Amino acid sequence: MLEEIIRNLKNSKKIVVLTGSGVSAESGIPTFRGKDGLWKRFRAEELATPHAFSRDPKLVWEWYNWRREIIASKEPNPAHKVLASWEERFPEFYLITQNIDGLHQKAGSKKVIELHGNIWEVKCTKEGIISENREVPLKEIPPKCSSCGALLRPNVVWFGESLDQATLNRAIDLSTNCDIMFVIGTSVIVQPAASLPYFALKEGASVVEINIEETLLTPHVNYFLKGKAGEILPELNKKLIS
Ligand code: BV8
């Protein structure tokens, strides 16, 4: 099967990859819905919402501060590194991620489409200005805008918020016009990201899913490689370059 996928990959012009939190799992970052996906007694869906933030910005920022501290101490794993090398190797290679941890960029990926934003960016809730903030830990929780004093929020997309339209359109366009799509480390639950592989399938692209367990997408894909992204991608890459 791997040989067939490699042949397919070599014959593809446009390559799209969609990643989820599973691609960062081997870097030691908790996934959303895995057993380690909880923080204190909360689930992500309860904290990553505008309602939770307006009700208790301090609690929501304590959660992000905790995640920022974890992420800051972690390194990209072999999965991130192989994907960064494929951006160099293939002229038309596009990486779409649901992750906000910035590990793809830390591994060297330059063209990363971040569907859900980035945990290292903050946005002023009054002026809407976005800036980078890499304070670990945050000096003040919740952090305030240095120019107007209003609350800052993480520059991420919460549940119930729409994605940036241009970013989403770009991701849909790439998914609809690719020859092969790799879907790596995502439970394919969160919309609209979870629809992207179906756009690719509808247009006849070859879809390769890499996951440690089957998902709702698995019955529909062309190839399902069961296992850890940090092991399977280096194995694929070894065959690609041999
Ligand atoms: C939207 C940023 C229009 C924040 C995230 C009711 C009200 C409002 C909306 C909804 C609603 N019902 C449904 C919705 C839509 C909602 C949604 O999809 N909900 C889900 C829960 C059903 N979507 C939205 O709200 C989106 N906006 O629809 O706007 C709208 C507007 C108003 C009203 C209605 C609609 C916005 C969604 C964006 C949410 N923000 N993140 C933050 O991170 O703090 S989503 C969050 O989930 C992360 O980004 C994460 O990446 C993403 C997806 O999860 P996964 O990445 O798949 O992670 P998960 O843990 O689930 O899975 C990990 C996978 O990896 C597993 O399969 C595991 O087996 C595998 N794995 C583990 N280890 C490995 C591995 N695989 C390989 N190797 C390994 N080593």
Description:
- The structure is a single chain.
- This protein has two domains: 2-27 and 76-116 and 163-241, TPP-binding domain (Rossmann fold, 3-Layer(aba) Sandwich), CATH 3.40.50.1220; 34-73 and 135-156, 2-Layer Sandwich (SIR2/SIRT2 'Small Domain'), CATH 3.30.1600.10.
- The strands form two sheets. The chain has a six-stranded parallel beta sheet with strand order 3-2-1-7-8-9, with helices on both faces. A three-stranded antiparallel beta sheet has the order 5-4-6, with helices on one face.
- It starts with a helix and ends with a helix.
- The chain is α/β, with parallel strands linked by helices.
- A hairpin with a 5-residue loop joins strand 4 and strand 5 (130-132).
- The mean pLDDT is 96.
- 34% of the residues lie in helices and 19% in strands.
- Bound molecules: ligand BV8.
- Ligand BV8 binds next to strand 8 and helix 9.
The level 1 CATH classification of the largest domain is Alpha Beta
CATH topology of the largest domain: Rossmann fold
Task: Write the H/E string, N to C.
Answer: HEHHHHEHEEEEHEHEEH
Strand elements, count: 9
Estimate the global geometry from the Cα principal axes.
elongated
Give me the CATH superfamily of the largest domain.
Answer: TPP-binding domain
**What is the SS-derived class?**
alpha/beta
Number of helix segments?
9
Query: Whole-Å distance between the termini?
Result: 16 Å
Q: What's the Cα radius of gyration?
A: 18 Å
Largest sheet data: 6 strands, parallel
What CATH architecture of the largest domain would you give? 3-Layer(aba) Sandwich
Proportion of residues in β-strands:
15-25%
Please give the order of strands in the largest beta sheet.
3-2-1-7-8-9
Bound molecules: ligand BV8
Helical residue percent?
25-40%
Would you identify the regions where 5 or more consecutive residues have pLDDT less than 50? none
Mean pLDDT comes to: 96
How many distinct folded domains?
2
